[in-house]
Structures are given as structure tokens and as C-alpha cells.
Inverse folding.
């Protein structure tokens, strides 16, 4: 059991979210589902909480009602190995009502905020070449979905 687990508060659509999230990563899986019982706070038989894993990270999702709303103050950062992974995740997470934001951020159709970022960007931003870091920063600030080739061109000053 992981010591610290990210808990996401939802108001319905939990099964739909589980289906999407566990379809994003090859090793994803639902590990436990607890359902509301008769006399509980939710609809009997509906998911109350579900535990799942994405890329080895444990999460819990609670079907807690309208009391709290998700916001970008908490986001899920996915470090992507290549543009194909960025494109695949971006397309899946913005589909059906998701919203593209700046600098590789998006909000999925459930309101969960994600950062879909290439590992290469972190490496570029950690360069000792201050001018290259500034060019890369200026490049990614103009993007919604991050483009590795464009970031690399900015880094090399091409």
C-alpha cells in the first residue's frame, strides 16, 4: 500500500472516469470498488469510492456529491517519453468536453487538471545555458499542447 494516495472528489460519473483513466496506461487497473448501500448517503449500488492504479501510482476516487469541485490547484503531471505519447494522452483527455489550456495543461471532461509534458522539456529547462532556457520558456508559453520538435528548435536557436 502506497503511503500517500491522491484522492479525487467527484459528483457522479465515477464509472465513466474510471473507464477513461484506466484506458490511458497499459498497466492501469481498478483495485477496489465500494458501493453505496441501502440507507447510505448515495444511491444504493452506485460507486461510493474506487481505488485504481495508473503507471504504478495509486489513486482513490470518491463519489461524494456536489460539495467540492475540482480545480487546477491540483493537477496530475504525466512525464511523456515522446510526441506520440503526448498526442495520444492529449487527444483522449480533451475529447468529449475536455478543455485545452496553456503550457501543456488541460482539464478533462470530469474537471480533473492534467499536465501532459515531455521529459525532454524538464531536461532543457535544467540546462546551464540560460539563453537556451529562456528561448524554450518563451516557446512553451505560446503553446497549448506541447510540441517536442518546436521546443528542441527553440533550445538550439533554430
Amino acid at each position: 500500500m502506497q503511503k500517500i494516495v491522491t484522492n479525487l472528489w467527484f459528483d457522479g460519473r465515477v464509472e465513466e472516469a474510471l473507464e477513461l483513466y484506466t484506458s490511458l496506461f497499459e498497466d492501469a487497473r481498478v483495485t477496489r470498488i465500494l458501493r453505496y448501500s441501502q440507507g447510505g448517503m448515495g444511491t444504493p449500488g452506485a460507486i461510493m469510492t474506487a481505488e485504481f492504479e495508473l503507471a504504478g501510482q495509486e489513486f482513490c476516487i470518491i463519489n461524494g456529491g456536489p460539495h467540492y469541485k475540482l480545480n487546477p490547484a491540483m493537477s496530475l503531471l504525466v512525464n511523456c517519453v515522446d510526441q506520440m505519447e503526448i498526442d495520444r494522452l492529449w487527444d483522449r483527455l480533451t475529447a468529449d468536453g475536455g478543455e485545452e489550456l496553456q503550457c501543456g495543461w488541460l482539464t478533462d471532461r470530469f474537471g480533473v487538471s492534467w499536465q501532459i509534458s515531455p521529459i525532454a522539456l524538464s531536461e532543457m529547462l535544467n540546462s546551464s545555458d540560460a539563453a537556451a532556457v529562456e528561448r524554450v520558456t518563451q516557446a512553451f508559453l505560446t503553446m497549448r499542447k506541447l510540441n517536442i520538435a518546436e521546443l528542441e528548435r527553440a533550445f538550439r536557436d533554430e
